[in-house]
Amino acid sequence: MKKVLNHTLAVLFLALGLLFMIVPGPSLIFFIAGLFLLAFYYPWARRYLAHCQIALKKSCTFLDKKLAKR
Question: What are the transmembrane regions (predicted)?
Answer without folding.
Answer: 12-41
